[in-house]
Amino acid sequence: MKTAPLTFGQLSVLRDLDLSGPEEQSDGNLPLVLDVPSGAGVDQVTEAWARLVERHEALRTVYDRRAAEPTQTVHPFLGLELDTTELSDPTREAALAVAEEWAQQEIHFDVDHSWRAAVAVHRGVVTHLVCVVHHLAADSAACTLVEDEFHTLVSGGTLAPDPPQPVELALEQHRDEQQRHRTIEFWLDEWRGFVDEDRQGGDTSRRYRAVLYSERAQTAARAVSERLSVSVQSVILGAASLALFDLNGRDRATFGLLAGNRIAKRWQTLLSSMNQLAPVTVAADRDASPEAFLRTLYMGSLERLLHGSYSVDELRTRLVEAGSVNPDPLQFDCYFNYLGEIALPPDEGSPAHDGVEWFADAWQGGPRFNLRVAMGSGLHLSLTASEDYLGGEATGRYLASVETALMSLADGAPGTVGAVDLAPLRKISPPPRGEDGGTADE
């Protein structure tokens, strides 16, 4: 066994869990469904998963959160066996339902490994590997890595040499005192420019969740990105900011961007959580040109993402010493999370095609504005927002406004930021109501 401090990404996840109540400790669980090729048996699937557990130390690590400086301890690989779980039908949806049910159960990563898995079968035929991995062991990029490597192994392929491990990253981060100092100093300076209204916390009003899918908005975002030579993420963030300002009457907001921290090639195949908040304040001069607004936003968000790896404990200590009114590095009310090229089209007949689709499973805690963005076959926008911040129907209208803003920016007609069209082109249905008059998730 070997013991080391946590990586900065692991520490952020752990401190986020510390802010949650005992009943919310399962919020860090990520459900996964891994497809199995036709004809594969239980032993073949088990062997592939065992090889991943042997290969990636994060899958056999326990975490001690009791000390002031938490630690991770890697256990040796001693082999494993997987149970089977019977599905109601052989579809991926049935397997995902099992994974999501498991994800509601807390994983005790302080005494056991940070995953649970089983071979899914239907009438004796193996269909999937159903898995839940804790966010301490994997972020979204790492989940994609798990999926790719599992498919290679279960199909009889071979993998590249063993990847880097979280302990290596942790030791490197803690050794490089100059880099740590520079990054902390950068954020100490940044903290003075954050919008207080976006750092209050404590909003317990009801959350609403709406989803919109748009191929034309994705085409527009890519066109603007190519024309201005800025990232497509910053184009979408710009449109999202303008739509928010239109609804709340402000011209500044602080967003908690999520930094992937996988820019260095060495760490791109690391199985661990590397996500951290890289907050950015977006300001809109309504008389400025949209091109200037988006270029400024791109450069500002890029600079902050490049400083996205830091110790939240160290930053909190320094903010307290500096007399910050809100020294918690994790307390932000507006989130913008770009998930990458993973979007799939909604099911046929889904309201998300032409309007917005409402979901009754919105998490009733956390930030009061949480926008998740994915691209792929089209632009997929998912917003969870609180009653006090936007309100129910405005949550859906907001997503439609982002779509219109992207199309207006691509058209190139607006000469100023204030002239960008934000009027929804879709008919927005209100959130569903329960029989008692409340929202469907009450």
- CATH architect. name of the largest domain: 2-Layer Sandwich
Shape: globular
CATH superfamily descriptor of the largest domain: Nonribosomal peptide synthetase, condensation domain
Any idea what the radius of gyration is?
22 Å
Helix content range:
25-40%
Major sheet: 7 strands, mixed
First CA to last CA: what distance?
47 Å
Give the low-confidence spans.
434-442
Number of strands: 14
State the CATH class of the largest domain. Alpha Beta
Overall pLDDT level: 92
- Per CATH, what is the topology of the largest domain? Chloramphenicol Acetyltransferase
Number of DSSP helical runs: 11
Structural class: alpha+beta
Q: Give the SSE string.
A: EHEHEEEHEEHHHEHHEEHHEEEEH
- Percent strand: 15-25%
What spatial order of strands do you see in the largest sheet? 10-9-11-13-14-8-12
Query: Domains counted in the coordinates: how many?
Result: 2
Describe the protein in words.
The chain has 442 residues and is α+β, with helices and mostly antiparallel strands. Residues 434-442 have low confidence and may be disordered. The longest helix has 20 residues, at 392-411. The chain starts with a strand and ends in a 31-residue tail after the last helix. A hairpin with a 2-residue loop joins strand 6 and strand 7 (125-134). The chain is globular and about 65 Å long. The chain has two domains: 2-170, 2-Layer Sandwich (Chloramphenicol Acetyltransferase), CATH 3.30.559.10; 200-419, Nonribosomal peptide synthetase, condensation domain (Chloramphenicol Acetyltransferase). It has helices at 8-19, 42-55, 92-103, 140-154, 166-175, 177-190, 215-228, 232-248, 290-305, 312-321, 392-411, and strands at 2-5, 29-35, 61-64, 71-74, 83-86, 115-122, 125-134, 207-214, 252-259, 276-283, 334-343, 357-359, 369-376, 379-386. Helix content is 35%, strand content 21%. The strands form three sheets. Strands 10-9-11-13-14-8-12 form a seven-stranded mixed sheet.
